[in-house]
Amino acid sequence: MNNLQFPKQVNYYKGKVRDVYSIGEEWLVMIASDRISAFDVILPKPIPYKGQVLNQVAAYMLHQTSDICPNWLYDTPAPNTAIGKRCTPYKVEMVVRGNLTGHAWRTYKGGGRMLCGVPLPEGLKENQHFPSPIITPTTKAEIGHDEDISREEIISRGIVPADEYEQLENYALALFERGKELAARRGLILVDTKYEFGKIGDIIYLMDEIHTPDSSRYFYADGFEEKLEKGEPQKQLSKEFVREWLIANDFMGKEGQTVPEMDEEWIATISKRYIELYEQLIGETFQPQQLTQEETFNKIVTSLQAAGAI
Predict the structure, then answer these.
(1) Count of CA atoms in the C-beta half-sphere (13 A) of 297
(2) Residues 6+ apart with CB under 8 A from 255
(3) What span, in angstroms and rounded, lies between the C-alpha atoms of 62 and 239?
(4) Taking the CB of residue 289, how many other CB atoms lie within 10 A of it?
(5) Which of 241, 235, 243 is nearest to 280 (CA)?
(6) Distances (CA, A) of 2 to 9, 252, 271
(7) Most exposed: 94, 213, 291, 306, by fewest CB within 10 Å?
(8) Cα(282)–Cα(183) distance, integer angstroms
(9) Which residues lie closer than 8 Å to 12 by C-beta, 6 or more apart?
């Protein structure tokens, strides 16, 4: 989709996956593209319906958690579009982990027993549940890679005041607990995820997407324990399978590495996996929708008018 120009638009930002339009001082229009990124690199070909899946899963999850924490979302006027409140973001992401997998496992396997200031118990297997979920925050990088950081560093460096950081932790753990409950109803385990928060005045808001395949990792509950005992890979629904394919093809986003060729069959496979997660997680058949740029623009404008934003 080409760059749009809305009434009262004051800024435009093209992220790795989303196009974000600032409307006046108080509103954001966020369009989830079909772009896909991994290792902080945008892969060369789009994934059909990925934007719609991300947008609709995020909207569903924001509605399901709105009693826990205020969130930014106002409306989803088009399949891949969200409109909401513009917040001043905290410069950290709250990563919550329920299981020893991914980055945490790679650290653990390498002998590390401390992650973001959080001690890790001895004797754990890959993918095993932690005794209780842990928070491993990262800095929020404008460019390049986010970096691990500890609670103590965040507070001592004045990135987030101590009392506000405690509230972020409380919100993140409560949101993760709700996410686990929602996943369990659908035969899934929410393994890990990240949350982004911001403020409007003195009020903390949950921002961006939550519990989507781009921000979260899910395992199938069926067969989990058996695979854990045997040391077998878990069947999962997340973007991790894309990362694994890239690693197997010698790409981890490092300098000098080339993104492997993505053929049409592989692109279709990725699209099907995203749709599978939507249907498994939401419990509804996915309804693909393709609007023209003009139709999307008109729906957004109508919603902004209803909100009093323009």
Answers:
(1) 11
(2) none
(3) 20
(4) 12
(5) 235
(6) 15, 29, 22
(7) 306
(8) 9
(9) 3, 19, 20, 21, 22
**pLDDT tens column, 220-229:** 999 999 999 9
Token readout for 235 is 């069947």
Q: Which residues of 58-67 are buried (b: 16+ CB within 10 A; e: fewer)?
A: bbbbbebbee
Those residues whose C-beta lies under 8 Å from the C-beta of residue 59, and which sit 6 or more positions away, are 73, 76, 82
Q: Whose structure tokens read 């993505």?
A: 262
Contact 10, 26 (CB under 8 A): no
262-290 pLDDT, tens digit per residue, is 999 999 999 998 998 899 999 999 999 98
Q: Which pLDDT tens digit goes with each residue over 39-95?
A: 888 999 999 999 999 999 999 999 999 999 999 999 999 999 999 999 999 999 999
User: Could you give the CA distance from residue 59 to residue 210 in angstroms, rounded to a whole number?
Assistant: 8
Domains of the chain: 9-88+264-307 (3.30.200.20), 90-238 (3.30.470.20)
Q: What is the pLDDT of residue 145?
A: 61
- Statement: the pTM of the whole predicted model exceeds 0.85: yes
Provide the residue type at 47 as one letter: I
Whole-number average pLDDT of the chain? 94
> Nearest CA to 72 among 217, 162, 183, 196?
196
Helices (H), the chain: 50-64, 102-109, 151-156, 162-185, 224-230, 240-248, 264-282, 293-307
**Of 78, 103, 71, nearest in space to 198 by CA:** 71
